[in-house]
Design a protein that fits this description.
Strand content of chain A: 25-35%
Structural class of chain B: mainly alpha
Structural class of chain A: alpha/beta
Oligomer: heterodimer
Number of helices of chain A: 17
Radius of gyration of chain B: 21 Å
Helix content of chain B: over 70%
CATH architecture of the largest domain in chain A: 3-Layer(aba) Sandwich
Strand order of the largest sheet of chain B: 1-2
Helix content of chain A: 25-40%
Strand order of the largest sheet of chain A: 6-9-10-3-11-12
Shape of chain B: globular
Amino acid sequence: MLEMRAITKSFAGNLVLAGVNLEGRGGEVHALVGENGAGKSTLMKILAGVYRPDAGEILIEGQSVRLLRPADALLHGIAMIYQELSLAPHLTVAENIFLGREPLSFAAAGIVNRRAMNERSAHMLSEYGFKLDPRSRVERLSAAERQLVEIARATLEAQRVIVMDEPTSSLTAKEMEDLFRLIRKLKSRGLAIIYISHRLEELDFIADRLTLLRDGKAVYTGAWGEISRDEILQHMAGREVKALFPPRNSTKGKTRLLVKNLSCAGKFREVSLEVGAGEVVGIAGLAGAGRTELLEAIFGAHPADGGEICLNGSPLKPSQPDKRVALGMGLLTEDRKRTGLCLNLALTRNLTLANVGAVMKGWIVDGKREIAVAREHIDKLHIRPTNPHKTVNRMSGGNQQKVLLARWLFANSQVFLLDEPTRGVDVNARAEIYGTINDLAEGGAAVLMVSSDLPELLGVADRILVMRRGRLVAELDARRTSQEEVLKHAAVDEDARLASVGS
Amino acid sequence: MELTTAATLPQREAKLTEMIKRFLPFASLLVLCVVIAALEPKFLSSGNLAGVARQTTVIMIMAMGMTVVMVAGGIDLSVGSMMALAGVVGAFAMVAGASSAIGVLICIATGAGCGLLNGTGITTLKIPPFIATLGAMGIYRGIALLITDGKAVVGLPASFGYLAEGNLFGIVPMPLFIVILVALATHFLLSRTRLGRYCYAIGSNVEAARYAGVRVSRSQILFYVMLGALTGLAGAIESARLVTGQPTAGEGYELRVIAAVVIGGGSLSGGQGTVTGTIIGALIMGVLANGANLLGISSFTQQIVIGTVIVLAVTFDEFQRRRLDSAAS
């Protein structure tokens, strides 16, 4: 039914997919597995017509097709259910399902036949077993219900291929049952289903075949069940550990950051941890585990619903980031363009923002001192270009990240919260950033680092905490654990609720 | 691999557009003056130029405050009404016996109070600045008309007129002197103080500023208060010029003030703008109006011209920003 051959794609010089082959047979569920950043979403976006591959071809029912736009994919019967839902919240369930394909009373006048639309939606939803009222507005639905609407909409479009990207991320056990029943129905209709998930235990119930992606390559393709779960984890994780990491000799000093039973409704629950001076503690977990939210709550950027945070022994009152920054905390955010940098401002301005007081002479900002400080950090962190007056929007990702690290260095932070510090950063800059993180720790700071890059966690951190679905489930010694063990704690959910999902 | 090679050509283009953007307002003003002077030499007479200075004073003072607010990513449509209200309240105080000096202070305080209201509404109630100040525009105007019963407040002390008509040291028009002081102070604030740094950061990326530990709400309220205070001062000068407290003063001024900032290089989305640019923007509009009068062009045509200039300035700003964005990504 579907064949993707030798698909290759690069973004801004980074190779994201390298000659990937994927075959989707009609009436079969093909699981696509890989950790964050392996290339799954990119591959599927190419199939959906959102991106165009640099090389390779796509065949539908043996015919080579060119997908230049999402509309082309739809024309060929390929429907995609995205992880980030794309519904119109102010419209009803029925309106969303039929968006763009509304049944018309008088085709020429374009008048929507609302009754037919509601009836057909109701019929479809009951057939699938989804308990939804076609007339309710999407904005009133829960995340799980919205996902069901998204699924229903996609099945209307899908004639040949349907791609589901983490469809169960918001669903409860009961809804998952309904979804799996629907999938079997789609199978019997002869559709090729591509199912992206990292929840291996779910795939046991639904997958027929499996392709594993790692670093943009398909490292395994075969029938589900041919290889064991441990082998899957091995394939997913095993990356060469390049000599990027500086030697760590950590001497843990007194506790700088203490978190007790911190909770944030809907994001994470009862998380307790502590980080001492000189320590680098990593936090591993899959997307949606609540790691970013945890850091934001510790930083005060997001209010927590319960629990306590202590900085250098004294408990913190609920507050905005400004108070925490003043007390010596710094957060390197996940999305540097959105929440990190003031893109149209110069390097100097960005660098001193968290501690302008330190470059002031009385009431006036000392421009010369600011430039000197900037030059100092440019040298220390090897930031390029070296002109402190240049605006940061033209810098590469790695250098931008260094500017942000420099900001917190200059602010004399004692607790560094780093969220994916090397995301989108090239190898050389990574090595430099790892060196800086090491220096921070050796200088007596406490570093808490969220990362989806397992070798990075193993190479930089002393201890690795693993979060899964909002809870802290494991604490591992970075020197004694392995990528597989971390991944196992992050991905495998031996939850009893799955026992109810029959086949 | 660095991105420098791929980015060089757009980088050079971006630099060029940046330079054009920086000098365009000044160049436009120069060209405008030359053209008008060529068509009507009376334009360059000291009497006329002094007149231009006096007439643009009020707009310019308010535009200084507006520059601060807009650089921080905000906007305030209520300045015209604020100005009237401040002028009227000060006038009442002076009629009741307060000295001219106290009267001016009361104008400033009234403006600052309105600014505080605006700023607090925007930050605590989280109403978008455009909407909040649109409402405030009506409220302040209404209050001004209400307390004056729609009539001008007369009987101001004679010394008050010095604010608008007086000449410092016999040559410098008082309003011009005030404008220079305000401009210097605003420029100092924006370029050399911590608050000024925060202003640009908040306007450039308010979330990033928050995560960097900037007290965003408090700073934003301060900016609106500053604008209010300056608007109050402008209201005092306008009342001095009219020698009455006019509840209908300042109608339509808000657009001219915003236009001055935008023509001078300020961006509606924040993070950009300078005092120098705003001064030039205000002068361009003042010179346009003055030149049109000298050349006998009807005020209706003037409005079309000013409107066109504003649209062109904003379009150029948008265009340049988009090119910079695409060159960076």
